[in-house]
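Dear support,

Our group has been running a series of protein-ligand predictions, and this particular one with FE2/S2 (inorganic) cluster is the one our PI (initials K.S.) wants archived with full inputs and outputs. We had some confusion internally about which version of the output was final, so please treat the block below as the authoritative record. The input we submitted was:
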Amino acid sequence: MTDDTPTTTVSVTINGEEYVRETEDRRLLVHFLREEVGLTGTHQGCVVGKCGACTVLHNGVPKKSCMLYAAAVDEDEITTVEGLAKRAEMNGVAMKTREGTTFHPLQMGFKQNHGLQCGFCTPGFLMTATALLRENPDPTREEIKSAISGNICRCTGYTSIVDSIEWAAARLREDEPAVADGGIDSTPCEGCNCEIADDVEGNDE
Amino acid sequence: MYPRKFEHVSVRTVEEALDALETYDDAELLAGGQSLVPLQKTRFASPDYLIDITDIEELRYVEEDENEVRIGALAKHTDIQQANPIQDHVRLFSECIGEIADWPVRNQGTFGGTLAEADPSGDYLPVMKVLNPTIELTGPEGNREVPFEEFYFGMFTVDMDDEEILTGARLPKLQSLVPDAVAVGSAYEKHAERSGDYALVGVAIVVGVDTDGLVTEARVSVGAVGPLVRVTDAESVVKGTTLDEDALNAAATAVEKTVQPDEEGSEGEYKEAMAGEFAKRALSSAYDRATEEL
Ligand SMILES: Cc1cc2nc3c(=O)[nH]c(=O)nc-3n(C[C@H](O)[C@H](O)[C@H](O)COP(=O)(O)OP(=O)(O)OC[C@H]3O[C@@H](n4cnc5c(N)ncnc54)[C@H](O)[C@@H]3O)c2cc1C
Ligand code: FES
Ligand code: FES
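Confirmed final output from the archive:
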């Protein structure tokens, strides 16, 4: 950075942790997250506010991080896809895959219901869906579609994404306690007789 | 896709914002940034200073008075859409906002920024045209109020000085626009290529009816097809009718004749035809909403 480049010291809470960084005033939040904080889960697609890959929660509300300056979110709270699992743990709704990865029910929903193919768009969908389910725990398919209309996916054709969000909504409404390691969930899955609902590898057949 | 260098200046009150506008040359206000940030990225706007007014909490409100709903410049689209006074008394505006972009953009874009930007394809304009709200401004010389009709000069141009700030507006409750009616209905219909795109056509309607379901008064406005217009010919042909097929067709014809699309040839003809079609749809739903209340 040259001397004539205006910078701001931005102090922002991301996924519950405080980060302080001096950054160029013209730095977009998406670039701040990826390049200065190293959280590359938030993706950059179009950078013009159209694709939603960069969606994060800003003080709990979904926004496109390519349309905000980092300097403008000073002292605010940001949640990115990296913070989802921790958030689920805090709320006692976390799920575990057989490999032992902790997931938010929405992440598990996308895994179980083939809500992703290449996965580029997925972080954005997850963030929008997180906010949707908090506002409306029992959305109709139409309401889900309306909420995610600012997120573009070139792979899935959306049906499986809507399925994934519905699946997670149903799980969250059941108010299940945190699922023990190993992916054993007390609800038997539909369509097969196994007892393991949340482990896609275990169930896939 | 990087904006040119600028200095970010954060302000918390209207006074600080006015001071900053006076202090800094070549400054722009940053409200939601959902118009300005893309303009900066494409270098259509390259101010030296951005005065960030997003955190001026005193300008983020939606409140109800007897005949009006007052909206602060920094109310987000979503704040307005969900506010009871708007849903109850200015329904078409809530409906209009539901058509803007998508949820994340509506969570960030503001009322004042949208009015100040005056994008001719934006969804607010036809609604403002039928409502004619009072726009509230403040500047070094003090406060000033202008009716929307005088505030809006034409696309991207409004009656606002470089050192002024739009602080809010007062929207009339629909009932006060049609005082002779026993019930009132309103609708906003948008035609766009894809959900969330800017409008090809935007139509705003307010309809008042008497106890027999006859239209006492109607307001019809069309945006995004050439200059923003009130279609008074359509308003008069529907008056005294029950908005039957004939009245709707006559209104559509009036709309098609009045609008002046910027595009030539088939594209212009298409927009004209869609303006008529969407005016019909909006008139029907506004009328149904009015008669439901009888
Ligand atoms: C992907 C995308 C899709 C969109 N689709 C639509 C759509 O379908 N329909 C639609 O209507 N809009 C659409 N928009 C625009 C959106 O509604 C914007 O929020 C709005 O036009 C501008 O509001 P803002 O608060 O973001 O303003 P900003 O971008 O912050 O500001 C816009 C201009 O107004 C000035 N300004 C801001 N606030 C004030 C104030 N209080 N006083 C004086 N000047 C001020 C700024 O200096 C700037 O010049 C879209 C935007 C995006 C990114
Ligand atoms: S990268 Fe932000 S919306 Fe596409
Ligand atoms: S999974 Fe590839 S873009 Fe959505």
